[in-house]
Amino acid sequence: MSGLSRELIALRAARELQSGQYVNLGIGLPTLVSNFITDEMGVVLHSENGALGFGRIADEGEMDIDLVNASSQPLTLKPGAAFFDSATAFAMIRSGRIDVTVLGAYQVSENGDLANWMAPGRKAGSIGGSMDLVSGTRRVIVVMEHTTRFGELKIVTRCTCPLTGYGVVNTIVTNLAVIEVTPEGLLLREVAPSVTAEDVQAVTEPRLLLADDLREMQL
Amino acid sequence: MDKVLVSPQEAVKDIQDGSTIMFGGFGVAGIPFALIKALYEKGTKGITAITNSPGGRLEDFDLSILFRKRQISKVIASYPVYAGKINAFEELYQKSEVELEVVPQGTFAERIRAGGAGIPGFYTPTGVGAVAGEGKEKRIFDDREYLLERALRADFALIKAYKADRMGNLIYRMTARNFNPVMATAAAVTIAEVDEIVEVGELDPESVVTPGIYVSRIVKGEKYDVGFK
Fold first, then answer.
1. What sign has the CA pseudo-torsion B120, B122, B126, B131?
2. What ipTM was assigned to the predicted interfaces of this complex?
3. For a designed S-S bond to B186, which of A23, A130, B106, B115 qualifies (C-beta 3.0 to 4.6 A apart)?
């Protein structure tokens, strides 16, 4: 039971975005989401290093060291792009102008606590923009593998890694499932093709609630 | 008024041991490579570095070279370590040879902005309930909890811009802007490394991002082949 590839997790997460939204993508797997955002979707991407309105990752011949995303990957621009400094980038985030952020995670808890900045067992961690993003953004989508590569659970009753924010996650998209964080608990909305609700529960620590319209992901 | 100096070496020659220095740049973009190299050659020690990241993406050119020579004793940063690799900073940090204060990136930017705006502190919602909030004064405004954060200032800011005129007015290029304009405002002495120096009057006043009042010294950098891929 391996479920979706990283690309398909990113594709499924991209489907959560809507026209007119300003969206920030975190480092790592979230960055892949940009490959599945088409012009027709009408989504404007924000990067905390000071850009709005960029497009796909640049090809070999188009790369410019002065035009990168927060992961230092080379970008392309779309018409209507804008540049600004870091203080302005975070003023946008803190004041609630970013509609959605897509972030990676080490752990997410039953009540939507997020731990994504300090890897277990490492002496230092990188907070980056994640704490500002979860405190200022309206909707937080986590994209990640459902478990670690050693099989440890990542959707847990209580996070054991240092927190990025408490009660901040709205939706979790993994290789196995789409789960919504609700006041009643974690609601299983969708399962990956050939994955069952029982399979998902077996690798999820908290008890999952099943959505009335629980279905297979459409990819 | 002419703030242009002949070399990066001349621009950093009075940076003494124990100085607090802001370094502009984010990832690979907007890093003052020539000024970092000049500081490496000068050998200033005991530096407190205020920088988004202590380097590692371009380790032969960025702040990594100062860590390898043990010139930096404390780092205030938001993104000190990378997934999947150990940078020169982390090698020293694991041996407790350098101190670290890790700060959420927006708080980091705003602390510098406040430092440059004559504001000693501010309240922010970022970090409430997380490690960033430990030991900090909290206050509730309109039913939401906020943390008190203090401003950051430095003895020197080493920044990178695209063009300068001789009075120190600066413009930037795309995402190489990042922390540079904010840091330019928050140091006693701001030194700008630029790709091109133009005569006074050649920059459109409407397009100036950093007004010359914030800039003390200007040097022309070199075009480095940093192997960006």
1. positive
2. 0.96
3. B115
